[in-house]
Amino acid sequence: MIQLWKLYENGKWVEPFLIVSICLFVGVSVVLYLLIIESRNRKIKREKLRAEYRTKIEKLMFSVVFQNVSFLEVEENREYMALWDVYLFRKVMTESILDLHKNYEGIYAQKLEQFYKESGLINTSFKKLKSLKWEIKCKGITELAEMNVVEAFDKMIALSKARNKALKIIAINACIKLAGTKGIVHLTTHPHPIDDWTQLNIIAAFKKHDIGDTKGVELLLESQNTTVVTLGLKLIKELRLTQKLKYVEQLINRAPNASLKYEAQSVLQMLSVITI
Amino acid sequence: MTFLSNEIKWFLDVYVLLILGYAVLIMSSYLVLAYLSMKELRGYLKKNSFVDYEVLLTSEFAPSLSLIAPAYNEGFTIEENVKSLLSLNYNNYQVIVVNDGSKDNSMEILINTYDLVLTELDIHPKIETKKIRGIYASKNAAFKKLIVVDKENGGKADALNVGLNIAQNPYVVCIDVDCILDKDSLLKLAKPFLESYGKRIIATGGVVRIANQCVIKNGRLVEVNIPDVMLPRIQVLEYLRAFLLGRMAWGRLDGLLLISGAFGAFDKEIALLAGGYNTKTVGEDMELVVRMRRYMLENKLPYSVSYIPDPLCWTEAPEDFKIFKKQRSRWMRGTIETLDFHKKMFLNPKYKLLGMLSIPYWTLFEFLAPGIEFVGLVITIVLIAFGLLNWHFFFLLLLFVYFFAVFFSVLALFSEERTYHKYPKQADFFKLLLAAFIEPLYFHPMTVYAALVGYREKIKGTHGWGEMTRKGFTKKE
User: Fold this and answer.
1) CA dist., res. B451 & res. B135, Å (int)
2) What percent of chain B has pLDDT over 90?
3) Is B403–A29 a contact, with Cβ atoms under 8 angstroms apart?
4) Does B152 fall in a domain?
5) Domains in chain B, number
6) What is the mean pLDDT of residues B384-401?
7) pLDDT tens digits, residue range A58-94?
8) How far is residue A13's CA from residue A11's CA, in Å, rounded to a whole number?
9) Rounded Cα–Cα distance for residues B456 and B463 (Å)
10) Domains of chain A, residue spans
11) Distance (Å, rounded) from C-alpha B264 to C-alpha B241?
């Protein structure tokens, strides 16, 4: 320490400082350059592998969906089983199953769900829910919801109470997909404000998954959380739920503030026009 | 004589310490901002990978936007540019093209292309502007979103104010008509307005990138390329540094002073309450953001300014020094004028982070930096003339600054590589890398010179933008 102070005092520190800094800048630049090159090469390699796996997986999934091939039969195929332990292969497989599931309905969708369960990919998705990283949790939720795994509903309800907004939105959307209105009634006791973006996502989920049974939406209007009440009103308005008008009327009579009262009146007015 | 030499020695020691201290301070601030930016960018991209922007497309609750595009002598490209504005991915929006007294045939082109007829609009102007000659709407239902205002020439800020007066929606998006917008740009720009609870989002801005030599088809960017010409190529690198390693951090700190005039969205009510665009400055984009923030702070209203790191807007960079010099000197004048108008905020704790950090940072590193460099250069020349320069130390200092500049550019390339990866071609990457080595020797002196011209123009009282000739994008039809 004393030596360092002496170095500073006699002004001889400037030169070593500059030389060390120059070396540092050059060194870090070289490292960054190498990292860029490595990242580019890795991306190229990964894309090649992805394309290769995708071709194999497409062939396999075709036989699963259209030729009734079960996972037990796939297990006998050495080529597939050798790849099964490869993380990227399983990842591409999950993505492919999810994409196919989005495009198929009925028996084909059920076959895909069956394969997803038998192959154990479902367990990987469940494991993701336990991850400490919110983005991994989101992936797990998306996978389980897409494959209609209703057993995951309770876990998703728990995750929908998270503080992380992205995670909350994904979990609520998944709850809506799996259980319709039942997936949002717990919001009546939600302690935090729900912003407009989250509200829009909830409404979009109702529309996207074509939730016909809206029994329970009116419960949102009874919440102490004004943003939840607003969400209820928006849902009633956007989904044209004229059968809920009596609840809107009740809200007008007991609205906690003028803004909410005005919102309710506007919904009532708009839907009354439709009813007439 | 000994006394004199002691004095000179003392002066040289102090000078070296000051120069070095300033350099270290500026470099450290860049590094801190870069660290914050990269951290924020990672978080944003993670979150964004789960965002479904379609939600905004299908909802009646999506914020309604009014696009304001001032146009002056844009006859060459206006037809295609307006077409591209009308075909953006968004539902609740209108396009207001303000013809700022163009001397060319812009109005004729617009009237003929879009079947425009004079219309009556119920306007209650809140800001005083130059006279409006006429307001036009289209007879064709396909262009019902379009309104064209023909007015007397009053400059960009005046044209934008006309747009603010006429806009029918609560949010306005101010754009340069010749910019190429990403198809989803409005979706991304509108989202932050919905995300905040308890705090009003008064403005959002996106990243602007350089489109020279990129391929444009039907008003959309279809292929990203790096320019062969060195001047715009270095500007690609410069924009990467500014947007990826700087503004994201200011966004995180909520101390952003500038939302690019090329593309930014504002809460109309607050913009009007703050007085709209200032026609007395050429830095109207920065000045409006500062004034809106000041308005919110002075009225103790909770607010925030949001920043989106996605490349949403592509613009043409000057390719020759003459135009570049005009642009940069104007930017410097704009900075000086804005800092001057709001000098009350400088180190004033009443204005919180803005007064204590953002404004001092801009003053010290954006406004004063070229001047300090110039003074340094003059002193160095004097020292050489008197044979007092320590050449060994001089070269070390030069290398110190040079390699930091190269390192910082490589860091920007690294950040780009790990995030947006917009330049996947190997050749493009090496072009940018080469630019990083050339920039400090070729481009930086030019920016300092242009900034000094800006100082001089400000002292002389020069007003206005000066003619900005554009080459036009490479079109692929």
Assistant:
1) 39
2) 84
3) yes
4) no
5) 1
6) 92
7) 999 999 999 888 888 888 888 888 898 899 999 999 9
8) 5
9) 12
10) 184-276
11) 19
